[in-house]
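pasting for ref
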Amino acid sequence: MTDSYLYAAARTPFGRFAGALADVRPDDLAASAITATLAKAPGLDPAEIDDVVWGNANGAGEDNRNVGRMAVLLAGLPTSVPATTVNRLCGSSLDAAIIASRAVETGDADIVLTGGVESMTRAPWVLPKPAKAFPAGDVTAVSTTLGWRLVNARMPKEWTVSLGEANEQLAERFAVTRDRQDAFAARSHRLADDAWNTGFYDDLVVPVADATGAVLDRDEGIRPGSTPEKLAALKPVFRPDGVITAGNASPLSDGACAVLLGSGAAAARIGTDPLARIAGRGVSALEPQLFGYAPVEAANRALKRAGIAWSDVAAVELNEAFAVQSLACVDAWDVDPDIVNTKGGAIALGHPLGASGGRLLGTLAHRLRTSGQRWGIAAICIGVGQALAVVLENVTGDAR
């Protein structure tokens, strides 16, 4: 067994639903992230990439035919470079990195490109295929953008509630107030804006142009003027007397990310030193409606496998699907809330499902590199009751 390392990461800006990236196909978004990431590997001959593992949650539209392979071809890599697409819903690109790291550690591969993409804007409506031709009744087109669709009638009803209702239940279970959620959301916007203004994302995000030549060079969903007071004025979405609003939940988004992994011996061929070591991984599952709380156990397992404790962790990247589930997880961990998502989170940056896990990993590696701190963890909740987590160890130099 050998160690696996993160060498480079890049992503597109994340666009709003029906926003600046609405006219850009998901395979083109993915190709942009691949090109930007490989530009950070100056010595790498792309033909030496052993495999590409790509994340995508919907896969019902333009991303339906193994979008990872399509992105490889569109990015101009040699046709000899293989690719697969994996689907663990919101965790797809983090799962892709986990799969790739195992391939490196077992010696099955030396260099693996990973990442993920989602265009929630361009996700199509689908029709169930009829059992026989020319049915007499009406059929309903179902949106594939988010959440349950074409549900199996044998699924218990409590499992298949909407994502918002599931998180209303979390708010009740863990007594997470609306005030806390709105304050957390406002913090996400403030920190994301600060990170962009101070140049943190300059090396991580590649601008994307649409068919008209208009360029998006910054995450589109950030609202610098957000305050708890302004967010408190928004109406609940899922229950008349609920606590979840459009302001304290992540938005529908479009975007892509890529992360380059390899063995220690691959550094000479890649042309740069690694940023971080994949030190631990964790996966967990529970009742589907409690999916927002699943990162608690996934992160604890990843830390145990890395041989460290929460007291060793200096940086946390937790996907902010909803403010309530983020707060419930942070409350359950023995961690300083101030080290969580210090560069903003998905509530501000956006949450293109298949790309979010890779964004977390790239941001975490960059945070550790710029701070000099040693240990960090990325975690993400996943619909239908799952979660993933990865521990990174900074290997860029004098890590503390």
